[in-house]
Amino acid sequence: MQKIKIELTKNPKAKPTDETNLPFGTIFTDHMFVMNYDEGQGWHDPRVVPYAPIELEPSAMCLHYGQEVFEGLKAYRTKDGRILLFRPDQNMARLNVSNERLCIPAIDEEFCVEAIKTLVNIEKDWIPSLEGTSLYIRPFIFATDAHVGVHPAKHLLFIIICCPVGAYYPEGLNPVKIYVEEKYVRSVVGGMGYTKTGGNYAASLKSQDEAEKQNYTQVLWLDGVHRKYIEEVGTMNVFFVIGDEIITPALRGSILSGITRKSSIELLKSWGYKVSERPISIDEIVEADKNGQLKESFGTGTAAVISPIGQLKYGGNIMEINNGKIGEISQKLYDNLTGIQWGNLEDTMNWTVEVK
Ligand SMILES: *Cc1c(COP(=O)(O)O)cnc(C)c1O
Question: Considering the entire predicted model, what is its pTM?
Answer without folding.
Answer: 0.97
